[in-house]
Amino acid sequence: MLDKNGAFDFSNELIDTVTRFLIEYQEASGPFRNDLEKGLVISYILGTMRCDLEMIWDCLGENEVFGSLHPRAVFDNCADGEDAASQQMRAHVKERICQFNWFSKPSDELLSGD
On the CB side of 94, how many CA atoms lie within 13 Å of its CA? Predict the structure, then answer.
């Protein structure tokens, strides 16, 4: 999560978590009928994770240490834009998704980065 340069990245852990959930889901519900069903489940998982993260962030922001300035506002101000590091991270995430074979036939767009 934390590299030697001090940068941090949770994409591997998040992809691992989604992949583990997919395995558990299939054990409980049976195999996916097709890639569309699997993709919709992945999308729902990611949405649920996002809701959970936002709830945690909101609870953090309610702490009096932040006063009237929610920490999310500070982050949003810092995180605007698409720099080289963001592009590199996006390429890494696409590689990991392909590595875990989330879909039976990865789209050309995903592999090419377009």
Answer: 15
Q: What are phi and psi of 2, to 5 degrees?
A: -115, 120
Distances (CA, A) of 75 to 46, 59, 72, 110: 20, 15, 5, 28
Distance CA 89, CA 82 (A): 11
pLDDT digits 0-9 by tens, 71-112: 888 777 666 666 777 778 788 888 888 887 887 766 655 555
Q: How far is Cα 40 from Cα 27, in angstroms, rounded to an integer?
A: 17
Phi-psi region for residue 46, left (φ > 0), alpha (ψ -120 to 50) or beta?
alpha
What are 100's two structure tokens?
Answer: 């875990």
What is the residue type of 11? S
